[in-house]
Amino acid sequence: MLRLIPFLIFLILIGPIFAGLMHMFGPAFSHAPMLGIDKISLNAFFDFFNMPGIFISIWLSFWIGLVTTLISLLLVILFVAGFFGTRIYDVFSSVMRPVVAVPHAAAAFALAFLIMPSGFFIRLVSPELSGFSRPPDWLVTNDPMGFALLFGLVIKEIIFILLVVMVALAQVEKRYFKVAQTLGYGKIWGWLVTVFPKIYKQIRLPILAVIAYSTSVVDVALILGPNSPPTLAIKIIRLMNDADLSMRLVGAAAAVVQLMVTLLALLTWLIGEKIVAHFGKKLALSGFRLQKDFVLKLVGISGVGGAIFLIFLGLGFLAIWSVAGYWAFPDILPQNFSFNNWIKQSPQLIDVAFRAINIAFFASFISVILVLFMLENEYRRQIRLPKFGAVILYMPLMLPQVSFLFGLSILLLWFGIDGTISSVIFVHIIFVLPYVYLLLVDGFHGIDIRLLKVAKTFGKSNWRIFFSIRLPLLLRVILMGFALGFAISIAQYLPTLLIGAGRVPTITTEAVALASGGNRRLIGIYALVQSLIPFIIFALAAIIPALVWRNKEALK
Amino acid sequence: MSENGLELKNIIIKKHEVELLSIDAHIKRGEILTLMGASGSGKSSLINAIVGLLPKGFSCSGDIIIGGQNISTLSPQQRKVGVLFQEPLLFPHFNVEENIIFALPKKITKKHRHKKALELLGAVNLADCAKSDVAKLSGGQMARVALVRVLASSPRVLLLDEPFSKLDESLRDNVRNLVFETVRKQNLPTLLVTHDKEDAKATGGKVVKL
After folding, report:
1. Interval A121-170: pLDDT, tens
2. ipTM (interface predicted TM)
3. CB-based contact B89 A286, cutoff 8 Å
4. CB distance A179–B107 less than 8 Å?
């Protein structure tokens, strides 16, 4: 039975993607019997490419995806290389953990509230320094070049990449770094040449996932991204929601183009990897030692520290907006505070929050169970996930959601199972499970095998050992995996919207929907609750093992 | 380098404000001083202090002087202190030759780096293994590559952090003799920390017990 688990997982992951892509490719090539169109042609593509500003949309998606990943990775590397093993590193690694829980949309709102013309930063210098008694007429968020979107993605991806680097670092021999320093290498360059190649092998798939996500992001682009023309993913959403049904074909063609754009971005990155590795090695063997790296350390700490600080500050500003009464520009604080909005919103807020919790709980719980069984199967059969297995596992994260979710939603509609909580949970599992695996795999296989062998010599069965030795020892990591999965599920916008067919509103779909309205008090309330829910789960995941193992020194 | 070698003046190492080790020593060029002590006596902490990589919670006072220059406040990469660790710690993504080239100083030009690496490997009979994957070397070969690598960086002082402790009995004597001979030939002031009496005896030098 256990042997079937990997196949079940691959079916869960690959099945919907395959079905979704098929139901997107069909209409893209004008094969849509449901719409009465069944003559294979490229017309939808021609119509799509004839739309005004479409090449700008494509370019925006491409460059923002690549540059987001590049900047985030560079800043994280500079920080980790420059401060690894120091007190600052320890402080940052503790402080960043709550930020991991903050959904992308909430982080985007937090940033928008800081940088918009009537936001915190302008208020801070107005009117004395700036001379503004009214918000300036600047297009800061939703700028046509997409810089605000890039900024919003970078501050969140820095946190994610920092997390995966930290997880990878735990598995890597760090004394190479010490050797490099004794050979006269500066901290950053020494780390880059000796430790980073090992780390990169482990974080490569998550990095590719960041590229795929950033080239096709919807929720953050709706909040911070350009409007005319928008990024490609937003264009697809608009086409798919067009009242003219024939536009669905153009939308499907656009989704195929989005898939190509993401694949091209991934390919560009892979080529870039080879080039960097080639010249990096040449430089490393040239004797270049970069002993004076103060400026690079400063860049690293400013980038990572800045991202963490901005998210916290923005969330604080959101919290103030949620209870703000009258708040004129350029006042730093409102003239009065009121909980009226919270009270007025509470029935709907409780409804969407509990629905989101319900979905996230089951999506994460089922993912944790499946991953644990898959890992137990690996242990019992003395095998590890092969490379192609890892590619399949991370495939949902490496393909643009918008490319297959529309097709999947059509398929579910066909079967009459769209718009249900269970179908939303099922689709969330596709995106939650890879992250749960990423977090659990090293902990699961890193356990001291001798303990399990000792139990075996006592005549205990494999399942008895699994439940009474393995799971208790892994309590902390299992709960962290659950919390991460929970946070990922809470943050899902497009899968919830499309598979829920608008009938399964959650805190995230409602929060993002508020973006166009511009009611800051409501946005403050929803974005804050959206951040608080996963944060509470992360806190519980940290507190429970500490309480359970309070008398066990080795497990604290 | 002047004739001063390595001087450790009033060195006191503390762990969480508790004194772990205090030492005054002078190691002349070509001399090997052996520091012996049980686990936890602060031997490796002294190595870390000289290298400039004391872990958190540790502190070091006093002066570390190499060739008349006080290096106590210099960063690890500026100290020019070579270390042979317990494990060879060869970089697995570089081959044997690249491990050596990586250690060579910048002043050796691109044209000569490959030649120099081969020359150094030849001195320990490993020129044939230049292009080999480090993971495929035997324990003795790894130890020799690690020695060549540290010498390639032109250190002013050599620190030996129990580098023979993980070698098989059969290899230990050979590697030990090679290291000590090389140290003397290169006239390097050398500090050996060990808990093995045989190591101490083989140096033929002074022994400080902690």
Report:
1. 999 998 888 889 899 988 888 899 999 999 999 999 999 999 999 988 88
2. 0.81
3. no
4. no
